Description:
Mean pLDDT: 91
Number of helices: 7
Distance between the termini: 13 Å
Order of helices and strands: HHHHHHH
Strand content: under 5%
Number of strands: 0
Low-confidence stretches: none
Largest sheet: none
Helix content: over 70%
Structural class: mainly alpha
Amino acid sequence: MNNLAGFIMTVEKLNDRMGKLVAFLVYPTMLVLVYEVMMRYAFGRPTIWAHETSCMLYGAHFILGGAYALRHNAFVNVEVFYMKFPKRVKAIIDLFTWTMFYAFVGVMLWKSLPWAWESLRVNEFSDSTWGPLLWPIKWTIPIAAVFMLLQGVTKTIKDLHLALTGREIIAAADAEATGGN
């Protein structure tokens, strides 16, 4: 039990740190966009790099923030009936619906890993006038898929434990560590 709780807490701390770190990508994205707007409209001198840079920064921000959003249940759910169910029933339902999550993340990892690897192998550049390296942004997709997969596994472990025992695993591990039931 303590090993599972330790794994869950480690993954959740990792995803919290990653999410908080990735959140700061919004600032350079904003600065690049403000700079571009100012250069374009105030000085009549648009840049060749700002749009592509802002797209790459926002793309990394969005995809790498997925595991953090997953960890904090920030995705949209259809909860008309679901929110009225007890926690144990929700966990049982989630165990069935999470198969779609695993299919999505599995395909994401399966398709993005060779794509990112090939981009790194050939040192791929953009075809734009500016021509930045593409492999760093392409690698954010399989990296994000791994973080999301780890977070999904923690959710599945929690749901399975709750469905089988009626108790949340972290609370059960704390009770076990303190000698309670």
